Amino acid sequence: MRELLGKCKHLTSYKKLVALRLLRGGQKVPYAARIAGVNRRTVQRWMKIYMRSGLEELLAGKDAKSSRYHEPYASQEDLQALGEAVVAGKVVTYKEAHVFLKAERNVVCKDTASVYRLMQKHNMLIKDLLPTKAKRKARAGHSGDGSS
User: Fold this and answer.
1) Using CA atoms, how far apart are residues 148 and 131, in angstroms rounded to an integer?
2) Burial (CB count <10 Å: 0-12, 13-18, 19+), residue 6
3) In terms of domains, do 103 and 56 share one?
4) CA dist., res. 20 & res. 50, Å (int)
5) 43, 68, 93 - which closes a domain
6) Is residue 55 located within the same domain as residue 10?
7) Would residue 148 count as lying in a domain?
8) What is the reported pTM?
9) Residue pair 79/122 in contact by the 8 Å Cβ criterion
10) Which of 27, 39, 73, 146 is the most buried (most CB within 10 A)?
11) Same domain as 86, residue 46
């Protein structure tokens, strides 16, 4: 379980593993909920899923409540790599940032909007990171007319 905690890329999955580890260690549900930062009923629902379907199903986030608010977890290294890719001109749109995070850093985001919110939360908007000349060059390259 300790190895899984280190590999978590989603905040919700990390909280689920923390709560599960505490419960398996003999702690009570209210304590595990407080440490994980969630309501005790949420921990009870997670335990029900775990007992019924196992760890894979619990971490898959198939239950309706957890999938609605699934916030991507990106480490400082992931964010730094994304910032460097933007500055280098490799990533110029949020869709490209979404693809970059998934392919290069194994960070799963629900959609492009969640990538935007993640970058906004860390003051990393593409328009602020991308130099002006690179913006123009990137737009020209992405215009689809084939001329550069």
Assistant:
1) 18
2) exposed
3) no
4) 9
5) 68
6) yes
7) no
8) 0.46
9) yes
10) 73
11) no
* pLDDT, tens only, 16-61: 988 999 999 999 999 999 999 999 999 999 998 888 888 888 887 6
Give the span between the Cα atoms of 137 and 133, in whole angstroms: 6
Mean pLDDT, residues 113-134:
80
The residue segments making up the domain with residue 92 are 76-141
d(CA 143, CA 25): 57
Q: Which H, E and C letters describe the chain, residue by residue?
A: CHHHHHHCCEHHHHHHHHHHHHHHCCCCHHHHHHHHCCCHHHHHHHHHHHHHHCHHHHHHCCCHHHHHCCCECCCHHHHHHHHHHHHCCCCCCHHHHHHHHHHHHCCCCCCHHHHHHHHHHCCCCHHHHCCHHHHHHHHHHCCCCCCC
